[in-house]
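Re: beginner question about structure tokens

> Can someone show what the tokenized structure looks like for a real chain? I only ever see the sequence side.

Sure, here's an example I had lying around. Input first:
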Amino acid sequence: MPKFGNHKTVVDGMTFDSKKEARRYCELRMLERGKRITGLALQPRFDFVINGVKIGYYKADFSYVENGACVVEDVKSEFTKKLPVYRLKRKLMQAVHGIEIKEV
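And the corresponding structure tokens:
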């Protein structure tokens, strides 16, 4: 049984952690085909380096460029949005990279 009750879903030969994440991937692919976004990346990794020391990393679900701006997205349930580790990593993304995570 998955940790959060989600079900792995395969789309385009790629396995997603949940049906919701797979649906969002399909939506983003349509936006990319329609040239509304570019550079769609899956599971991009962002390292947290402070004073030259790597203290951890954050792996998002998606990143892409929309209207010239980099967007980092994570598909989260209300439960996982409240987890202390996720909340800390969300703050580190803002502090270290200047990126606000878009939660879907």
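Each token stands for a local structural state, so reading them left to right follows the chain. The mean pLDDT is 93.
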